[in-house]
Amino acid sequence: MKINKSQLARDLGVDRRTIDKYLNGFIPKRKRDKPSKIDAYYQIISALLSEDSKQQFYYRRVLWQYLKDNHGLDGSASTFKAYIARTPELKAYFDEDKIITSPKGAARFETPAGKLAQLD
Q: Is residue 3 scored above 60 in pLDDT?
């Protein structure tokens, strides 16, 4: 009995050439076990985000910039944010709504006409 690759592809929701590839013995490569560049900074990050730390970080980007400026972190902000998202104990720190908003909003002030100018 011959396999109907097109029907099988429709049933599985993939391309028929993908079905053909796997029927011919394709074995996908295993995932590489490569450590992240940021793993070396885990102890520093966890110390900065602990309850004992005097500093508070409300945003991941601010923490990334702090590590880049003071500890020589070499990596992009998006890589850092993905690392935080993959690490549950670090992610939990930022999941809490610690952002403090001003109850009054922005302060408004008036100036005489012609005193200030705004350019776009």
A: yes
